[in-house]
Write a structure and sequence with these properties.
Length: about 325
């Protein structure tokens, strides 16, 4: 078995164990949340008999471990349960909202790397000069800005004051611009900071100094040697962003009244719609595991030293 195959197998086995443990932790956390979803669903005027009847209907009258086994069995067969609030299969709810989340997250993710990485590289190559200070100042501003505040400021300036874009809901292509910017600007800042840090570190390596000393063209040294190695952590970060950006949709979609998975998760938490919350959190957890594994594998392909270090461990 080759070193690369052993490395991939090890990562997949670790990921499989985590995916198995995630549903257990999700279920335990939801059991510890205060409140009774059935009482909330039944209303304040519901009688005790009516509440008990609803609990039997939804299987919530059984012990917690029985509920967990039923939920786990259904999850393994692709059944994510039935929403208490919407009275629909959870899979249908998520399927209907997933497209709207992708409409925001995918362009934002691409912009964060298409714009952020070149800005970080330019700042590193112009270290200490005006352009570096300018990029660093703008990047720090957006990096430290709370997401909800940024969204509100964009709504106030470009929506209410200038009237260029809608401030909430879906009313055409323009309605996606402000949420995408709210996603993208902090992500661009993060990518730029990471790319600058990695590029500065690579430029101090001995092999880069050797390449300069040999008289190789600057373009070749920067693109073929420095940039290739500096992009390894950035590439890994790209995959780590995928699940994070879906999880971060809760705030942005709520601020802009966008009907995606984030707003569905927020409303389900408020209404204690546990099957929906468990399903969405499980999807995010699985995506996190898969993206971590994929990022590690790609990093190992780009830099063989990584998998060799893992072999030694």
């Amino acid at each position: 078995m080759s070193a690369m195959l052993r490395y991939v197998t090890k990562k997949l086995l670790i990921g499989a164990v985590i995916v198995i443990l995630v549903p257990t932790f999700i279920f335990l956390i939801m059991q510890l949340v205060p409140g009774d979803p059935i009482e909330l669903m039944a209303g304040e005027r519901a009688t005790r008999e009516r509440i008990e009847e609803l609990k039997r209907t939804w299987g919530l009258d059984k012990p917690a471990y029985i509920q967990y086994l039923y939920w786990l069995r259904n999850l393994l067969t692709g059944n994510m349960g039935y929403s208490y609030v919407h009275k629909q299969p959870v899979a249908h709810l998520i399927e209907a909202r997933l497209f709207y989340t992708i409409v925001l997250t995918l362009p934002a993710l691409l912009l964060s790397f298409i714009i952020g990485v070149p800005l970080g590289v330019i700042a590193a190559l112009k270290r200490g000069k005006f352009i570096d200070n300018l990029i660093e100042g703008v990047v720090t501003f957006f990096y430290s800005m709370p997401t909800y505040w940024l969204g509100l400021m964009l709504m106030l300036i470009f929506g209410l004051r200038l009237g260029w874009f809608p401030i909430s809901g879906i009313s055409g292509v323009k309605s996606a611009v402000l949420p995408i910017l709210t996603y993208a600007l902090p992500s661009i800042a993060t990518s730029a900071r990471t790319a600058r840090t990695e590029m500065l570190e690579v430029l101090t390596e001995d092999y880069i100094r050797t390449a300069w000393a040999k008289g190789l063209p600057s373009k070749k040294v920067i693109l073929s040697h420095a940039l290739r190695n500096a992009l390894i952590p950035v590439t890994v970060m790209f995959f780590l962003y995928l699940p994070w950006i879906i999880g971060g949709a809760v705030i942005i979609e709520t601020v802009f009244a966008w009907p995606g998975m984030g707003s569905l998760l927020y409303k389900s938490i408020v209404k204690q719609d546990y099957p929906v919350v468990q399903a969405i959190v499980f999807i995010i957890a699985v995506l996190t595991v898969l993206c971590n594994i994929l990022g590690d594998i790609i990093a190992a392909l780009l830099d063989p030293r990584i998998r060799l270090e893992q072999e030694e461990v």
